[in-house]
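Appendix C reproduces, verbatim, an entry submitted by the partner laboratory led by Prof. M.T., so that reviewers can inspect both the input and the predicted structure.
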Amino acid sequence: MEEQDNKNTAVIIGVVLLALVATFFLYRFLAPRPPVAISPHTSNGTTPPPQTTTPPPPTGTSTPPTGQARVNVRTKAGDYIPVKDFYPSAAETIRDSKGEIAAVLIKKIDLYEIVFIPFDNSFLLSLKSRDAEAARTAAEHEFLGVLNISQEQACALRVTVAVDKDANIFLAGRDYHLSFCPDGVPFVNP
């Protein structure tokens, strides 16, 4: 009988420990994320020290303040590059369940989509045409123009260039990077 009680106690302790570990991981991965790392560019042309600003409170249709002509976007190295404020001309601002900005659809046409993801200050150029090379060229040109930055500045940003699987299954599933950057990868059809 005592052996059975020891087994029951061991099972209960095991279940409690498992629940604690599961709670820890759930909290760790579902906890609120830090605020978006975008800060306004100063009027004297200098880049302010790294700081974060919280998106505006969720009101359904509100968008980030547009009084500033430029915003700073964090680079791969952790510093900031001032880019043209793309919020006012964005095709769509996508919010998460908490009302925070999850993504900004900067441009959407048949050939490609350009998306900004505030959580990690990254951009996605999603190529949607069977002619991936033409779509890439057009998307990269639009990307530089919308942000009003040079190729060198663009290479410092976190940018993923990917082919949509519905456009070309053979090229999908890979980050090709910007073609004019050192890590740019050419398309090779099988």
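The chain is about 25% helix and 25% strand. Additional entries are available on request from the coordinating office.
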